[in-house]
């Protein structure tokens, strides 16, 4: 009679165990991210990021208001204001990304929800227009909102200056130039 060998197979690893083992190996092999050391202390970076978040909320609220007015402007100034508002909100949209990326570079999350923006902004939101406001009122609101963005940018600029944060200073200086120009151009329509 022939002897039969009893072959015992190792129990098959469950897929979850294989995945876990693979992830453990990858985690062990991958270095963890180093802390942020860009020459600005964490407390100062936090103050700057908080200021940039308030700026971002004001800028986003202004963007929405400008876009809303672009869609809803009527009257004798329709063509010129429709085009002007489009130019402004398009530029503002691109700038929002730059600010969010600066907040991230400082090591903090950028605000990105309506709830966060509503809690941080100093600009009253336009509730929506069932009856469109007169173009003069739209322009007046945009002057006031651009000036509010300027005030917030100046506050951030001061904090960034105290921390010797040249990139944030540069960004806020650029934004100030833009929003001061927008406020001037819009105000000129009402004079």
Task: Give a written overview of the molecule.
The protein has 191 residues and is mainly alpha-helical. Helices cover 70% and strands 0% of the residues. The protein has 6 helices and no strands. The chain has helices spanning 15-29, 42-72, 78-105, 114-120, 135-162, 166-190. The radius of gyration is 27 Å and the shape is elongated.
Short summary:
This protein has helices at residues 15-29, 42-72, 78-105, 114-120, 135-162, 166-190. With 191 residues, the protein is mainly alpha-helical.
Which helices and strands, and how do they pair?
Elements: H1 15-29, H2 42-72, H3 78-105, H4 114-120, H5 135-162, H6 166-190
Q: How much beta, percentage-wise?
A: under 5%
Sheet with the most strands? none
The outline comes out as: elongated
Order of helices and strands: HHHHHH
Mean pLDDT: 88
Q: Whole-number radius of gyration?
A: 27 Å
List the total number of helices.
6
Low-confidence stretches: none
Instruction: Compute the number of strand runs.
Output: 0
